[in-house]
């Protein structure tokens, strides 16, 4: 029986629901750490340091999770290409839930001294390993079930789980920050982390009901499973892997500039925590809408074309985003974050599923996608808050941050231009050639 014929439209939407639900939960778990890094961890786990150094140290623990993501992509990508996508997604979800819940239980520096930041980093590393394995699998769950014309849109749906996770994170922290400052620092910030375990249980139940992807079933039936998939990627597809990394750097830099760095910088602009988190919630809601629109564009004009436009949009818009933030008012900070997350970032983020999937054959796809995304995220995302903080400390303004982010956007656009096109990109190019010929004749 043809594996492709086993899945009808109802099954397709059930798979997409599972992919979105799981990525939203893991996105919440992973992103909540970034919010807490900006608002809490410097005071709770690095109380022995001065405020500026504590902030950088807090972002250092944040970066550790991103640096662990490539290893997670390597490990789970290997077994995802050999055993299957579904099994790895269940394991990563449980791993993420346990590590996130434990973060909410780590004692403060005042209670156990240096062991507090050590335990925090260990839990963050486990988060990074889990997220590194989750991301590529969630993408493939949707893309490998989707018909060619819908890969762009349906592939963007799991990625839309990130703004859902960001929205849940910002909302939960907006609630707990209403507590008195002493209660918030003592126990209030822990509630979102501990409560996320309930979400993980629900997500695991949903994912258990999904089938394996048709593409992987075909790989198994034809006995094409690679012995060491990552090694084959490095041998035969290293150029495409590097291009994926470069494109991801352009996307993830603008994301963490808006969702982490600007949140940490807001107090220097005289903006309260509640106004800052409200701006982040509105930005996350805009991002969700932007992802759906950008996903539709990917299925209309092609993922590679959209990604190229996105990189240029980052370079063009980042100065205006920074200038708005520096106007030192909640309204302008909200507008800056909304433009960054709702308009610019989706143009680079939504295409990743369909575009990166087109770069690697099915038997190497989990490893190839995971390595490209997670190496790019580690390089571009993990160091963004640290570099941006250092630049603003050195120059006294955020102009240098705008130059840095804009350059990574252009890098992402160039890499997208050099990557293999998707089926929709090819069809769009052929359509444009035909239209031009008709005009000439």
From TrEMBL:
It is found in: Cell membrane. The keyword Transmembrane applies. It comes from the Bacteria. The chain crosses the membrane at residues 12-36, 56-76, 88-109, 115-141, 153-175, 187-206, 249-267, 279-299, 306-325, 331-350, 371-389, 401-420. It is a multi-pass membrane protein. Keywords: Cell membrane, Membrane, Transmembrane, Transmembrane helix, Transport. The keyword Membrane applies. SUPFAM superfamilies: MFS general substrate transporter. Residues 15-424 form the Major facilitator superfamily (MFS) profile domain. One of its GO terms (cellular component) is plasma membrane. GO terms for molecular function: transmembrane transporter activity. Its main location: membrane. Pfam families: MFS_1, Sugar_tr. PANTHER family: SHIKIMATE TRANSPORTER. This is Predicted arabinose efflux permease, MFS family. It comes from Paraburkholderia aspalathi. The lineage of its organism: Bacteria, Pseudomonadati, Pseudomonadota, Betaproteobacteria, Burkholderiales.
